[in-house]
């Protein structure tokens, strides 16, 4: 199946009709139908059955559709890269980060980098760690920043700092009178924190056992930033990373968790892909920005 035929197949699968698919691709219906017929001829089997004006995918079409989407995504990535090269964007730096470092560290790093290298294109993606790993492997990101260093062997993790936990309190909560909180203070409270089998959840569970404290969550989250809305709605206290700039969120009182665990801030790269000079310069800025941000956290504490 050729690239254009692949594009037509995916469009018809998504749209369900020739008319809608042709509109999506901005081509005529006869041209699309002809491309589809050529694809079926080359494959040697039918992709769609014509039923009352609609196209019903055959079992063969349904089976190959996921692979077709993956191939299409790869081709689109190739198109973006060739466009970057054609437009002279050889100095493209791609960084993928989980939400806390994306909000707390990357703005500072990008600002310093931009001041020194105004002609280099920057691209930022905020993503969970599994997606960051996939992007590093595929070359869709050169650098990653995440709050975990327990990674597959093909991903190098350089720990550039560590961060503790913060407690987010809703308006009117009695614990707001305290300047810092401990795990013992949170016993019996409605708690919002990370789902199990994540690095921060593991660290909290280990610390709770060490301190003889039993905590019970009423709401599990997968990314810390999602806790803000729940706390603002009065659903409980959030136990989350201290890296995000929580003071920017209205209606929250932020208190440090005393004697709590810490987990790493790691700079990630692929062991199988070399960094460009621009990537190396951005890596230096991320290291410096992380150090500055964490120093500011310690000074406030």
From TrEMBL:
GO molecular function: DNA-binding transcription factor activity; sequence-specific DNA binding
Keywords: DNA-binding, Transcription, Transcription regulation
Presence of the UniProt keyword Transcription regulation in the record: yes
Record SUPFAM superfamilies: Periplasmic binding protein-like II, Winged helix' DNA-binding domain
InterPro entries membership: LysR_HTH_N (IPR000847), LysR_subst-bd (IPR005119), WH-like_DNA-bd_sf (IPR036388), WH_DNA-bd_sf (IPR036390)
A Pfam cross-reference name: HTH_1
Record flagged with keyword DNA-binding: yes
GO biological process terms, semicolon-separated: lysine biosynthetic process via diaminopimelate; positive regulation of gene expression
Positions of the HTH lysR-type domain: 1-58
Family according to the record: Belongs to the LysR transcriptional regulatory family.
Protein name: LysR family transcriptional regulator
């Amino acid at each position: 199946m050729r690239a254009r035929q692949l594009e037509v197949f995916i469009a018809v699968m998504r749209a369900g009709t020739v008319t809608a698919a042709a509109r999506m691709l901005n081509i005529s219906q006869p041209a699309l139908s002809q491309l589809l017929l050529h694809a079926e001829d080359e494959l040697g089997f039918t992709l769609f059955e014509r039923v009352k004006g609609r196209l019903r995918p055959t079992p063969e079409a349904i089976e190959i559709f996921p692979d077709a989407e993956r191939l299409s995504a790869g081709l689109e990535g190739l198109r973006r890269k060739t466009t970057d090269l054609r437009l002279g964007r050889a100095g493209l730096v791609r960084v993928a980060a989980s939400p806390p470092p994306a909000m707390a560290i990357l703005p500072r790093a990008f600002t310093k980098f931009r001041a020194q290298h105004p002609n280099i294109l920057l691209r930022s993606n905020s993503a969970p760690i599994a997606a960051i790993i996939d992007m590093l492997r595929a070359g869709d990101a050169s650098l990653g920043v995440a709050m975990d260093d327990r990674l597959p062997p093909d991903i190098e993790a350089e720990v550039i700092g560590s961060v503790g936990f913060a407690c987010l309190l809703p308006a009117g909560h009695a614990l707001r009178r305290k300047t810092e909180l401990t795990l013992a203070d949170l016993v019996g409270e409605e708690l919002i924190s990370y789902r199990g089998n994540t690095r921060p959840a593991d660290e909290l569970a280990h610390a709770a056992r060490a301190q003889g404290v039993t905590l019970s969550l009423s709401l599990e989250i997968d990314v810390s930033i999602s806790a803000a809305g729940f706390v603002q709605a009065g659903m409980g206290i959030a136990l989350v990373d201290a890296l995000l700039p929580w003071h920017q969120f209205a209606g929250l009182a932020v208190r440090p968790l005393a004697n709590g665990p810490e987990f790493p801030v790691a700079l990630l790269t692929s062991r199988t892909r070399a960094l460009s000079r621009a990537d190396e310069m951005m890596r230096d800025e991320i290291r410096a920005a992380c150090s500055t941000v964490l120093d500011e956290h310690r000074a406030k504490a």
